[in-house]
Hints:
There is one protein chain. The protein is built from four helices and no strands. It is mostly helical. The longest helix has 22 residues, at about 65-85.
Amino acid sequence: MLQPSACVCLHAQSETEPGDLTVQGNVWQQLWQTTEGKAASAQEPLMNAEKEAERVFHDLEQVTPRALWDQLLALAAVAAAAMLAACPGAALLPARQQLLQ
């Protein structure tokens, strides 16, 4: 599980930065201003859901049992580590370190 401190923070660009959309001659700004507005329902979809579903099914049919097992084992190991790290005992010091203190 990601902790809030592990997230990448994005910042807004100031008007003086070269990548800013307000810079004269910016291609994206020109396209935005000259393109005709359309409702999302009237636009062509970005992907074909049926074609993508067929691709996924094809990939699942082609996977070998060994490759599937490798992926499931890796997933199980990561899930087990995450569950153990979330337990209250995960913050405790190991017994040897407690004895030495």
